[in-house]
Amino acid sequence: MGTQDLRLRLAQITEHEGQRHKAASLYAQVVCHDPCSVDAWWGLSQTICDPEHTLYCLKRVLTLAPHHVPARQQLNQAAADVMADYLESEGVTRPTSVSLDTPIFT
Questions:
Q1: Model confidence, pTM
Q2: Which domain holds residue 16?
Q3: pLDDT digits (tens, 9 = 90+) for 52-99
């Protein structure tokens, strides 16, 4: 097992123990040395506190592993959250319920 593999494993253990800041630092060290490590980018996306950096990490995961379902789900949810925040800032509210009998266009 190489140094980066050990560092990645340590980051995973540290994350599991709830030490997110320390785990993020370890994941960042791994991606600096191995920018193709899907596991390190994924771990970094789960431990970093800045939403913009989280999105960047999720995009890197999907660039390296396009079928990574959890990353795709989180990126889709983040996009939906951004859109909801934008619509709310513009005064557009979401309907509480929609009747299928109500015509959309009249």
A1: 0.78
A2: 3-89
A3: 899 999 999 999 999 999 999 999 998 888 888 888 888 877 666 656
At a CB cut-off of 8 Å and minimum separation 6, what does 36 contact? Answer: 64
Minimal CA–CA distance to 46: which of 5, 16, 67, 69? 16
Quote the CA–CA distance of 78 and 81 in Å, as a whole number. Answer: 5
Please report, in angstroms and rounded to a whole number, the separation of the first and last CA atoms in the chain.
67
DSSP 17: T
Please say whether the dihedral angle defined by the alpha carbons of residues 80, 82, 87 and 91, taken in this order, is positive or negative: positive
Q: Which two tokens stand for residue 17?
A: 């123990």
Report yes or no on 31 lying in a domain.
yes
**Dihedrals phi, psi of 101, to nearest 5 degrees:** -85, -15
